[in-house]
Amino acid sequence: MRKQGVIGKESRLRLLEAATQEFALNGFYQAKISSIVARAGVTQPAFYLYFESKEAAFAELIDGFRNGLIQVVRDSHIEAGKNRDDLKEAVVESLGQIYRYLGENPALTRIGLYQSAESVRIKAEIAGLMEQNLIAEQQAGYYRHDLDTVFFAEALLAIVERLTLIKLLPGHETPSKLARITQDLFFYGILDTKHRE
Amino acid sequence: MRKQGVIGKESRLRLLEAATQEFALNGFYQAKISSIVARAGVTQPAFYLYFESKEAAFAELIDGFRNGLIQVVRDSHIEAGKNRDDLKEAVVESLGQIYRYLGENPALTRIGLYQSAESVRIKAEIAGLMEQNLIAEQQAGYYRHDLDTVFFAEALLAIVERLTLIKLLPGHETPSKLARITQDLFFYGILDTKHRE
Amino acid sequence: MRKQGVIGKESRLRLLEAATQEFALNGFYQAKISSIVARAGVTQPAFYLYFESKEAAFAELIDGFRNGLIQVVRDSHIEAGKNRDDLKEAVVESLGQIYRYLGENPALTRIGLYQSAESVRIKAEIAGLMEQNLIAEQQAGYYRHDLDTVFFAEALLAIVERLTLIKLLPGHETPSKLARITQDLFFYGILDTKHRE
Amino acid sequence: MRKQGVIGKESRLRLLEAATQEFALNGFYQAKISSIVARAGVTQPAFYLYFESKEAAFAELIDGFRNGLIQVVRDSHIEAGKNRDDLKEAVVESLGQIYRYLGENPALTRIGLYQSAESVRIKAEIAGLMEQNLIAEQQAGYYRHDLDTVFFAEALLAIVERLTLIKLLPGHETPSKLARITQDLFFYGILDTKHRE
DNA sequence: AATGAATGAGAGTTCATTCAT
DNA sequence: GATGAATGAACTCTCATTCAT
């Protein structure tokens, strides 16, 4: 794996893209190098020109996804000092960016959120980051003070994860719509207001 | 696979239990027949005395789990005519039974909810059942009428799924506690009441 | 690698014998499992029924050879109290047993003395054992006191090793003849007696 | 492989040196072209600019070593007409030159004496040359007339070979010391003189 | 009811070598 | 004079499954 020119870079990219598809479709263990290289239009040894092993290629994909997602989640923090309507819009915007990131990388999302042992760790990490945001936002007075932020964060992640899987990735809903729905559910709860009184 | 006497039944059960553990631990593809029979204390051909194939054994486990879960979710329907406090308790009780079922079958739950291609179908089915309950309960006047029951059901399932994975199965929380937390989040939402006004 | 009946034991032996031939002929790295199993008349996976890996099979052969040789060399120690003629016969007998062991296991000898990284270690070990014998024999007054036993042992091993390779294994000489030649060379040196004076 | 200028010559030399090290360390089959070119700081195809194949490069090294060694052994012939002390010194000097040649080319020696199928042929050749010398020396009256020169030559080579491997190449002994030890062993044999009578 | 023995099919990986530039 | 890129051919090892007993 020495210096690469432009052709090598291209081959590497083709392999990476092929690997993404194959891993997303079949998961790590069922994914076959032979399928990957077939998709990429090269022979098997070419794969090892650019990646140390099946594991290494997978790790590279996972890492890219993880880093991107971490960035997006970090950036989704909402600052203090907003009024109620602005808060709502900000939350929708933040969730929208997360859904957008996932929607724009459907295969990677499949790998990173659903197809690997690492996905468990990644989701734990993301839940942690989300909780940090939520804590700050709670202190900003946006959320109930009796709210357990750990569970809140896990619940938020859970919903994002599931709606992504069944609505976003198949293309049934847009990121914005999902963001609005998620925000609505969390903001107002489910109780009928008349019944509530 | 002819009719079996009592000894055969025992071996079959031991194999089934061993398979449950192995599948839960490693997933379908990584599970090895050799590990299963080692756990069960029999030889490899014995496995094929009781099961047609790896797939068949897996399907049998999945089916048992699925049927049990469907039953529990069906039974978790809440009748009309309750006042607010009774509703709350009824919801907690219903969720509690679901969490209890999952918590009592940890290995099967791992297989049925997280370890297989079937889990996607199972969860879709469960979400559907949950939605039916929710629709009836919404019509009973318990929930907001503008609530989209599809998303509500998916969100509910998502949270149950995730809290089960990270809190229930590792033994960090009891089913009752999780039921209460889930109910609280959904009933009241997250907004600070002072901020709310 | 579970319990084996008589058929299994036979297959194992056939594989072991085939492996011996193949390793002797080609050395560890050039030896192919496919050749071994072909010789043994089984399929490739059968090899792994009886051996953990190529390495493990090789190690088993090496170990057997090494242990046998160590035994023979240990037993070749000559007790004190012999007169000159008896000593000579005893030495010839001892060397004869070593040559005989090597000659009776030609393939193993090839592996253990010439075909592996282990052969270096084995020979070092054998040289050490030989030296222990020589030290005792030197103290019994059989050999010159100014003789460096380390070098003597190494030289003895060297000659045995080489004569085995070029005379014994190809069948050009018998163990007894080689034993006598080796003894003669060492006992009397090379100098012409007339010239010696 | 056309004619080369000065730059090409340099690369070729670097490759040859790198190949020597690699072959000495790992033997022919385990040596990798990729390692050789890495050591030499060139790319893989460059190797084939200067050598037809792995085999060809190896053969070139072997040939160099073989020719050098043949020369040294030829030159180590001792003329007739020496008295006993001069003979001793001449033998020590001759052996010293052989050990010196081997010690000065440690990597090549590893390849030529221990690491190849060719080493068998080379040693046979060397033994032959040594025997020719010994025959002449025997006829000069230096050695016993009942001495079998074939075995004597093989034994001599065996000892040189082994002491080189375990004492010279690791740097534990100098060529001169080894020459003296070798000569001593052969000249006087091992018997205790008192016991001898 | 169970087992010892065996296998077909296929996986990931390695390496000497070559071609176009 | 040298290189980036690629490959054919091989090899070790794994696993679900079956057959004869």
TrEMBL record, chains A, B, C, D:
It comes from Paenibacillus illinoisensis. Keywords: DNA-binding, Transcription, Transcription regulation. This is TetR/AcrR family transcriptional regulator. Coiled coil: none annotated. The keyword Lipid metabolism does not apply. Transmembrane segments: none annotated. Residues 32-51 bind DNA. Residues 9-69 form the HTH tetR-type domain.
